[in-house]
From TrEMBL:
Protein's job: May play an important role in maintaining the flux of carbon towards starch formation.
Organism for this UniProt entry: Ilex paraguariensis
Class in the EC hierarchy, top level: transferase
Protein's UniProt name: fructokinase
GO biological process, one term: fructose metabolic process
Pathway: Glycan biosynthesis; starch biosynthesis
Length: 347
């Protein structure tokens, strides 16, 4: 049974700060949405055809937080869920996975977000969201755990919290606190077009904070969408349209092909670790978690191409292991599992 907040407490659920301090911390704070994904119990069907659904914890920033913790890193999650059974369950899942959940807030008047997700036989993802509004959209600046943000060596976020107020203003305020505290800002837009009012609003919203990030991870589809071009494989398109002067590292995830990387000094590609995929859910989040876990303990990683390539090989292995099981959080690997896969891959 999930732990519940004490009566009258709209802020905390529990805290496990792992003895973090601003001086010696390699803490990654992940900000944004955590929700319940409902996935069909059989694969390759549309949502309408699915005979039944299984619930799974989801939300990209929360997945990244758990991914880092599984690898032995230090992570925290900041976001809002409903003061309901699903909300308590999600907070409990973070706690079980040793993620500091003291920055979570619980809304008595809004529900925890739900998403129905399927991978159809034609390979296309189908989403149906229930959030009008859901609790994650209602996080206010006054509810931010400022001290937790100030401890972050890396502050990681997506774009979904930019769609509506008050979460948009809260997101911007949290970024400003993290930046002023010397945190590296990490951005994975994680485009979910059905949630935005229009494609144009999504493009403008995602790009509105682009120039503030130190590290950005995007997918091929997101490059095409953001640049309004057919050139996701063209380095010139990527560098002229998406690489900004403050950016330390731009990563392009290419699924089974691996990833590309761009810094001010160099660029290249790291091949994927070959596996037999079962479910691609959470692969990108596992990749981001793997990379941020390496970066949190080696902040100059992006300046040394050899060390960067090693970190990206590790991150690719994190993503590869995740696609061999169903669901995101249940499939996120331990460091031991990743090292085993890497040993086989280089043998």
């Amino acid at each position: 049974m999930a732990e519940k907040p004490t009566p009258g407490d709209s802020t905390d659920l529990s805290s496990n700060t792992n003895g973090l301090s601003p001086l010696n911390s390699s803490l990654v704070v992940c900000f944004g949405e955590m929700l319940i994904d409902f996935v069909p119990i059989v694969g390759g069907v549309s949502l309408a055809e699915a005979p039944a659904f299984k619930k799974a914890p989801g939300g990209a920033p929360a997945n990244v937080a758990v991914g880092i913790s599984r690898l032995g890193g230090s992570s925290a999650f900041i976001g809002k869920v409903g003061k309901d059974e699903f909300g308590y369950m999600l907070a409990d899942i973070l706690k079980q996975n040793k993620v500091d959940n003291s920055g979570m807030r619980f809304d008595p008047s809004a529900r925890t977000a739900l998403a129905f997700v399927t991978l159809r036989a034609d390979g296309e993802r189908e989403f149906l969201f229930f959030r009008n509004p859901s609790a994650d959209m209602l996080l206010r600046e006054s509810e931010l755990d400022v001290n937790l943000i100030k401890k972050a060596r890396i502050f990681h976020y997506g774009s979904i919290s930019l769609i509506e107020e008050p979460s948009r203003s809260t997101h911007l305020a949290a970024m400003a606190i993290a930046k002023a505290s010397g945190s590296i800002l990490s951005y994975d837009p994680n485009l979910r077009l059905p949630l935005w009012p229009s494609a144009d609003a999504a493009r403008k919203g995602i790009l509105s904070i682009w120039d503030q990030a130190d590290v950005i991870k995007i997918s091929e589809d997101e490059i095409s969408f953001l640049t309004e071009s057919d050139g996701p494989y063209d380095d010139d398109v990527v560098l002229t349209k998406l690489f900004h002067p403050n950016l330390k590292l731009l990563l392009l995830s290419e699924g089974s092909k691996g990833c590309r990387y761009y810094t001010k000094q160099f660029k290249g590609r790291v091949p994927a670790v070959k596996v037999k995929p079962v479910d691609t859910t959470g692969a990108g989040d596992a990749f981001v978690g793997g990379l941020l876990n390496c970066l949190a303990s080696d902040m100059d990683l992006y300046q040394d191409e050899k060390r960067l390539r090693e970190a990206l090989h590790f991150a690719n292995a994190c993503g590869a292991i995740t696609v061999t099981q169903k669901g995101a959080i249940p499939a996120l690997p331990t460091k031991e599992a990743v090292l085993q896969v890497l040993k086989k891959d280089t043998a």
